[in-house]
Design brief:
The complex is a heterodimer. By secondary structure, chain A is an alpha/beta fold. Chain A contains 22 helices and 28 strands. The chains are: A alpha/beta, B alpha/beta. Chains A and B meet through helix 6 and helix 18 of A and strand 1, strand 2, strand 4 and strand 10 of B.
Chain lengths: ~625, ~260
């Protein structure tokens, strides 16, 4: 494997001046490329270097029959190489696309890196996508190979296989339930490993040579963005984007070698991909894959990550678990929680205000931390967490304050696929609540006259796949990425997002309203999972509310409100009353025109498969507005 | 009595086995003269629900109303006297008593001897085989006959509501159909209201007017039996309707949504 090391600095431009940040060497000035990390200017070169250096150290952990098993960087290298060579042996060429349709698991990353090492472009597909969406994504990306997780995902392919003539082979990870399958277009991952092994014996050194061919400007990822309108668009990211991304991420939120992190959001999404696939190649973290999306909280407790990234919905869930538990507890427990939280909030508020925490406050926090808050963090699986990150959707500042109070500094960031993930973030040592932080090093940021946030730097994507018109709409000729988000930058460079440009509501009275702020306040209630504010061209604002099943059921049960299924729960007058009280509480903080006058509860339990939700489980405004017209119209008639 | 008013009403019921919460807040209604079924897999809490209604178990929380009066917390014999009889899972007949003695045990709470005698005849009318075996000890009966005996014994209390726990358990499909046909007649002719717990969703939904689906101690679905039969989730998870994949076989199941 040592020959992997030799090629790294042989081609490409000279390294710009380098500096070491928290153990990782990278460009001192990130405003100019090429972007080097520890001597490599592409992800696959850095990957090869890490595998060679770290060898037997643990790269991944996965649960097998209930037991956590470790897989090393050497395993990562071996399997990625076999996949890459196997693909070559099957006729795969540089620049061609591989699609991956699987839940998060180590083979996802093996495939991702293996294909990229031999010059491939990888594209992730959500497991919740339907067969028709699969067809679209495979065909739009011109995928030559499709990797699927198991029989369930394979059946999606089989039901629409005639519509995807461009696929040369489909590779299945999991053989279970498919032992008697014979199909000349379908092989299993171990078959591919065997093909790769044979190719390796015949062509030693080819894999390393392919890695050496990689150039920063080569497109290496296709990330399809969840289109709230129209079909999804494939954002192309090149090696330079990904290198910039992992370097700037490390500069904003430093990782340490051996940090345990948890991978549970879909790897098809740029947030989890940059956090669990490329971040660790930069900062050498250990990635723990959850067993399933249903076991995230259990797995989190078992792993106890050193840092954690999640979407607001997950943090909201953790908060409401504690809020309900505290309510349930004995009088002594309630008293202790209230006092501990008060001590925590006092300290948190000093930190948030940027003031020194006085000795008395610190001491009282230390005491309550020992008695209560430490246990609370252990229960949540956050006792080792140096900090937590939230992104991909707006979060309520109250929630950030609460997490800080219990001793988990939570930092909000902002980014999008087109900015290769992270664009701005609050840093552990420099943060401001209610903002999404400052720009990553080397990226310029400004606000357009229309209020739109514009970004320019090494993380701005080269364009949409086969879609120059959309690219031209998104990136200005001089390289500014138009984010579609509306915001303000304060004197210290902190960005505050006020809404999506297409989400701005203009009421019939002509008042501009950014619904995100109101929706976030609603979501802070443990009883509300998500909400959509309606009111464009209407007399007043109303809301469609998605209730939190578990907590509202508990409320109903405690208050002895009879209900049976979810619809009857939503229909119960007392539940409506409860939601009304949540809304009334939120309304107090808004001006009259921004107040919600009426609301309806969505009485269907939505799952990730439903079109109403994005991959990160946010309600899609435009879609919801259309689909629930029957609920909305009566509020205005 | 108003035919549309629920004769049996359960509200927010919670029951525990020691520390284990078997029923986590169940509310349901049974209208007079109707047959209501509760479907669910093993361990969903169906049997516990019936045991709690009939007073064998006390609820931790929640209320049970029968004919407008609360009955939760009452002892089982009082509840039988009020008019609710429980035909337990696995029959639980008295094996060493004769068929006739078993039936008389069913009338234990009554003292109107003439009427008891005529009720025995009524039971024999519905289950002629029991008349043939009236002097045999009940333990010698076949499974199907024992089930008939258990139902007959329940009838002897002249119930207004019968709680039936898995009457199809361990019976051949033919016998199951026979017994369900008799249940249908009992409902039509004797106006016995029934709350039926079943794993055999097909036959239960054919018989019932309304159905509830229980999962892990909660009700996840409630609708007319006909609508339940048409629901995709019910078809896949309870009626065994399997859309075959292109491969001709399928191991995985789609996620339940209960819509």
């Amino acid at each position: 494997m040592n020959q992997a090391l030799n090629f790294i600095s042989v081609n490409g431009a000279a390294e710009p001046s380098q500096a070491v940040f928290d153990g990782v060497r990278m460009n001192a000035d990130m405003s100019k490329g090429p972007y080097f990390v520890d001597g490599a200017d592409t992800v696959v070169k850095l990957f090869a270097k890490r595998c060679a250096d770290l060898g037997a150290q643990t790269a991944h952990r996965e649960k097998d029959l209930g037991i956590w098993r470790a897989y090393s960087w050497a395993d990562y290298w071996r399997n990625a190489r076999l996949i890459g060579l196997g693909l070559m042996s099957l006729g795969f060429n540089r620049g061609e696309v591989v699609s991956i349709l699987a839940e998060d698991r180590k083979e996802w990353l093996y495939t991702d890196l293996g294909a990229q090492c031999v010059g491939g472009v990888t594209s992730g597909i959500y497991t919740t996508d339907s067969p028709s969406q699969l067809t679209y994504l495979v065909n739009d990306s011109d995928s030559r190979f499709l990797f699927v997780e198991n029989d369930e995902q394979l059946d999606k392919y089989l039901s629409v296989r005639e519509k995807m003539p461009g696929l040369a082979k489909v590779i299945v990870y999991d053989r279970e339930g498919l032992h008697d399958l014979t199909d000349d277009k379908i092989i299993f991952l171990d078959d591919l490993y065997a093909i790769g092994e044979a190719f390796l014996q015949a062509n030693p050194g080819v894999f390393e040579a392919e890695i050496a061919k990689s150039k920063p400007e080569d497109v290496t990822l296709l990330v399809y963005t969840s289109g709230t309108t129209g079909m999804p668009k494939g954002a192309m990211l090149n090696h330079a984007n990904v290198m910039f991304g992992l370097a700037s991420f490390h500069r904003m939120i430093p990782g340490q070698e051996g940090d345990e992190i948890v991978c549970f959001l879909p790897l098809s999404h740029i947030l989890e991909r940059s956090w669990s696939a490329y971040g660790p190649i930069g900062n050498m973290a250990v990635v723990n894959f959850v067993e399933s999306p249903q076991t995230v909280f259990e797995n989190m407790r078992e792993v106890s990550p050193h840092r954690m990234v999640a979407v607001p919905r997950v943090w909201e869930k953790l908060y409401s678990t504690v809020a309900i538990l505290a309510k349930e507890s004995t009088p002594l427990g309630r008293f202790a929680y209230a006092r501990a939280l008060a001590a925590g909030l006092k300290r948190a508020d000093r930190q948030i205000a940027g003031k020194r925490v006085g000795p008395f406050t610190a001491l009282s926090f230390a005491l309550w931390d020992r008695l209560v808050l430490g246990n609370l963090r252990r229960m949540l699986g956050l006792e080792r967490a140096r900090f937590a990150l939230t992104g991909a959707a707006p979060i309520s500042p109250e929630l950030l304050r609460w997490f800080r109070a219990i001793g988990v500094p939570m930092l909000e960031g902002f980014g999008q696929t087109e900015s290769s993930g992270l664009a701005t973030a609050n840093r552990p040592d420099s943060f401001r609540l209610g903002t999404v932080g400052t720009a990553v090093p080397g990226m310029a940021m400004r606000i357009s006259p229309e209020g739109e946030i514009l970004l320019k730097g090494g993380n701005v994507f080269p364009g949409y796949w086969k879609n120059p018109e959309k690219t031209a709409e998104t990136v200005t000729p001089d390289g500014w990425l138009q984010t579609g988000d509306i915001g303000e930058i304060d004197a210290n460079g902190f960005l505050k997002i006020t809404g999506r440009s297409k989400d701005i509501i203009i009421t019939a009275g002509g008042k501009n309203i950014t619904p995100a702020e109101i929706e976030n306040r609603l979501k802070f209630s443990p009883y509300v999972t998500d909400a959509v504010i309606i009111g464009d061209c209407r007399k007043f604002l109303s809301a469609l509310v998605m209730i939190d099943q578990e907590n509202v059921e508990k409320f109903a049960q405690d208050k002895r409100i009879p209900f049976n299924d979810f619809a009857s729960l939503c229909a119960a007058p007392a539940v409506k009353e409860l939601i009304r009280s949540v809304i009334d509480e939120v309304n107090k903080d808004f001006a009259r025109v921004e107040q919600i006058k009426d609301f309806r509860i969505i009485d269907v339990l939505l799952t990730a498969e439903d079109d109403e939700l994005t991959a990160t489980m946010k309600l899609k405004r435009s879609f919801v507005e259309k689909k629930y017209k029957a609920l909305i119209e009566p509020m205005y008639s | 009595m108003n035919a549309n008013a629920p004769i049996l009403k359960v509200e927010n019921l919670e029951s525990y086995y020691g520390p284990i919460m078997a029923i986590r807040g169940v509310s349901l209604e049974v209208n007079a003269g109707k047959i209501v079924t509760v479907l669910g897999a093993n361990g969903a809490g169906k049997t516990t629900l019936l045991r709690t209604i009939s007073g064998v178990m006390d609820p931790e929380k929640g209320e049970i109303w029968f004919d407008g009066k609360p009955i939760h917390g009452l002892s089982p014999d009082v509840i039988v006297r009020r008019g609710i009889v429980h035909v337990p899972e696995g029959r639980e007949i008295f094996p060493l008593l004769t068929v006739e003695e078993n039936l008389i045990m069913g009338a234990y709470v009554r003292s109107d001897h003439a009427a008891i005698a005529s009720d025995i005849e009524l039971v024999f009318g519905y289950f002629p085989i029991l008349r043939e075996r009236r002097r045999q000890t009940a333990g010698m009966l076949s499974g199907g006959q024992q089930q008939m005996l258990a139902i007959g014994r329940g009838l002897m209390a002249r119930p207004r509501v019968m709680l039936l726990d898995e009457p199809s358990l361990g019976l051949s499909p033919l016998l199951t159909q026979e017994i369900f046909a008799i249940l249908r007649r009992l409902n039509d002719e004797q106006k016995v209201t029934m709350l039926l717990v079943e794993q055999n969703a097909q036959i239960a939904l054919d018989l019932a007017d309304h159905g509830y689906v229980m999962e892990l101690g909660r009700i996840v679905m409630s609708d007319d039996a006909a609508k339940l039969r048409a629901s995709k989730d019910i078809q896949t998870f309870y009626l065994g309707v399997q859309e075959d994949s292109v491969r001709g076989q399928r191991r995985w199941k789609q996620r339940k949504t209960w819509r």
